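Entry 12.
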Amino acid sequence: MISSVVRKCFPVAAQVVATKAEDINKLNVFPVPDGDTGTNMSLTLGTVVGELNALPADSNMDAIAKAITHGSLMGARGNSGVITSQILRGVAEGLVEADENNLSSADIARAFQRGQKIAFQAVRKPVEGTILTVLRDVTTKAGECAAAKMSVEDTLNSLVVEAYESVARTPDLLPVLKENGVVDSGAFGFATFMEAFVNCALGNDTTLDFSPTVVSDDEAKAHVQAQVAIELNDDWEGSEFRYCNEFLFQANDETFDEVAALKFLSTMGDCELLVGDNPTYKVHVHSNNPDQVLKYMLQYGQVFNVFIHNMDLEAQERTEKIASDQQAAQAEKTTQEKTSAEDAVLPHKELGFVAVAAGDGEADILKSLGVDVVVSGGQTMNPSTADIIAAVKKVNADTVIVLPNNSNIRMTAEAASGAFDEGTVGVVPTKTVPQAFAALFAVDPDASLAEMVEAMTEAISTVRDGEVTTAVRDSAAADGTPIHNGDVLGIVQGVIEAVGTNVHDVTLDIINRMQQQEEGDTLTILAGSDMSDEEFEALCAAIEEAQPDLEIDAQRGGQPLYPIIFSIE
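Predicted 3D structure (tokens):
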């Protein structure tokens, strides 16, 4: 059913655009950095998703089309967002006329023809080499597919190819794009949405990487990929008009003259758009006099959701952001070259160790205790079986012991060990990095693998560990205390024992509780990447004051998400 496919695939495609928003933003050089194209398109699509989600489950295509029309108009941001809203409106209205249970290539062609008509009506001066060019090319291709009576699947695949090929041609149609070495940002965003939607509709991989949908047309997408390269442009001269003005307008009555209003907007600047139907419209114009634009429209109705962007400042920010990204890319390249050298197989040895850690500090400590290879990973970024197998091979030892340091990684480590001959790779079920510290102190190189694993496992059984992090959703602690998103959580042995508002107090709380339950001698505590040295020093001083008999070993762990990880023995 068409309606169910649209409701299923629209949110998926919108999410892909949101994920790619920053990449799309960086391409935005025409005619001025009018907000951020990727962000604006994403916000527009996101509002539609909200409207669709609010519909009853049995809504037909007519109701869905109205939701898309209303949502995209209300959420449209920037020139690209407004034009996208009109494309969505037209295509959705075109699909209403199709057979709900028997979509054809002719139906698809009619929908895109409707989308082209509505979108081009909204723009007084269409410019070649933009999203409108891609829309026209896709619509033409859809007509050719319908004439050839192609299947729906083949038609959709062909339209995605045409979209990318048209995107690749945009620099040849618009000199400013060629000068900057980029494709048109709005066109690229439109193709991104189309491919993601088609991937979902046809059951393909929804991850946009220029290959999932069109296997036989790699050259077309390779062309696009080659064009999508950002060059720093420090000599941008700006636009005659400084401010991007956009707002929603509610007309007082049916006498509102759209033609006259649009003519006035054209005298205020450029890129003027007035879309919608009486009484609700979306207004967009680049002008040096936002006050005059608003004053004129207020004569005939009410304005709301007003956004005014200084495009000169946005252009400057874009240039600075690209320069920063280029520096970061160079640093990453240097790191990759260093990593490549480090990936070489180590000299052969009898016994070796692999451990998983999330922070540089944790990795350094583990290596100082004898770990040969540290695999990057932890909460929210679990390494794969292949990652651990590669690490074991790199160690190049007769016997290797793996320390997963996370309960979610234990099974992966065990699966990796099964890829080697029996008796060569063992797994010690460590749940935290501090447990790994204790396990490594229990190593007896003269023992067998089984004996070592048993001894190291016994050593971690004496370790009591705690973690401090921030809640990401509402829940409840072990004692029933309500937890709200953003609360600081104190976790002991995997159970939430304390809830508070700051890391300092929660850490002290759970350490004091653990000492009351069973007094330990040594505290090993690791500071996360988000905790400053000053905060860490103050915390350790407070712990020493509260627990004077507890020997403290404080280290920078560098782990993300968890500002404090510790163990008591």
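Annotation: Residues 203 and 213 are 10 Å apart (CA to CA). Residues 311-342 form the longest helix (32 residues).
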